[in-house]
Amino acid sequence: MSKTILVTGIGGLTPRSITGIIREKHPDYRIIGCDIEKKAVGFFMKGLLDEYYICPRCTSPDYFPWIEKLVAEKSVDFAFVQPEAEIVEWGDFYDKNGRFPCPVFMGCKLLSESLRDKSIMAELLDGTDYIPKTIKVTQKNPRYEEVENIIGFPCWIRATEGTGGLGSLKLEDLSSYKSWLFINSQIPEFTVSEFLTGRHLANEMLYYNGEYIKGAALECVEYVMANTAPSHVTGNTHFGRFLNENRINAFCDSCIKYLEKKLGITAHGILSFDMKEDNQGNIKVTEVNIRHMAYVGVMSRVGFDLIEDTINILEDGNADRVERDQYHHFERPYIFLRDVDVEPIILESEEIFDSKNAVFEV
């Protein structure tokens, strides 16, 4: 049966990836995209959307009346809400009204707010082995002595909110810290944490009313346009490996269960982890996103399809059709390559890099 789906933030990479997968698997579905930016790329991608609209900012008093009018007039069956600011606002709407403007798959406002702000997450996990040593600093209270004596150099700094490594840099000494605060004076808050030297890991997980249903992991090896960022870390992975390491999933689920107990809530929705290993291989959480991550479309193509799972949950009102797969193992040692303005490329293994077939003569 055909459905009408709303995708918010359609200018972003992840919403566009989600929409592309839905379009392939459900060509009969009507897809409406919205974004606050009139130049949103998704508006102009041929065949991606059936309709698109510029919407108010989610913090505007006009936002939810606009959303509810769109839902009613276009008979929207359910929505993929992707920008984290919007997810928090939809959670607030639910707390105030006891309902969402239309069916969505997301967690409660308390969990969303706690994970969106990295300093709040750090406070919740303080004193545990889940995170590296971390403190919050502000432009008004840079806490120079604590950064130097508690965290130590080298250390890692990044903005408390935002994705894509906003404000991220490895700091070598106190003078570089002071310089970075000056350069990024428009960012009010940062977290400073111990510098981790190991692999950058990621994990996307699905929870339904407190039940951990499925999860899969990967390694982010190289980044798109890395030389354009002072930290050499951007929000997009250029080269990644899919992993079959149960300990990553187990670590993430253990962290979520700790947060559930700490906050007195149950996990629900999609939760996406960013992690780094220390020099001894211990995993530490650097970020937990309250939505699908940018790799979701690539993952769907190699057998881990949380987009279809989300659709099944929204259509059924339960998770009965979602396979229980807490430690997903990919069939092959898949890798992926991504870059600007090109579709991701999936390869069955890294062996191609070393084979004669990897070299082409012009």
Would you kindly provide a written description of the structure presented here, covering whatever features stand out?
Helices cover 30% and strands 24% of the residues. Residues 358-362 have low confidence and may be disordered. The protein has helices at residues 13-25, 63-74, 84-97, 109-116, 118-124, 144-151, 174-183, 246-263, 296-301, 306-316, and strands at residues 4-8, 30-35, 51-54, 78-80, 134-138, 155-159, 169-171, 189-194, 200-208, 211-223, 237-243, 269-277, 283-289, 335-337, 345-347. The protein is α+β, with helices and mostly antiparallel strands. The radius of gyration is 21 Å and the shape is globular. The strands form three sheets. Strands 13-12-9-10-11-14-15 form a seven-stranded antiparallel sheet. Strands 3-2-1-4 form a four-stranded parallel sheet, covered by helices on one side.
Query: Which segments are poorly predicted (pLDDT under 50) over 5 or more consecutive residues?
Result: 358-362
How much is the radius of gyration in Å? 21 Å
- Which structural class matches the secondary elements? alpha+beta
How many strands appear in the DSSP assignment? 15
Order of helices and strands: EHEEHEHHHEHEEHEEEEHEEHHEE
Give the oligomer, counting copies of the same chain as homo and different chains as hetero: single chain
Strand line-up in the sheet with most strands: 13-12-9-10-11-14-15
Distance linking N and C termini: 49 Å
Number of distinct helices: 10
Q: Fraction of residues in helices? A: 25-40%
Largest sheet features: 7 strands, antiparallel
The global form is globular
Mean residue pLDDT: 91
Instruction: Tell me the β content.
Output: 15-25%
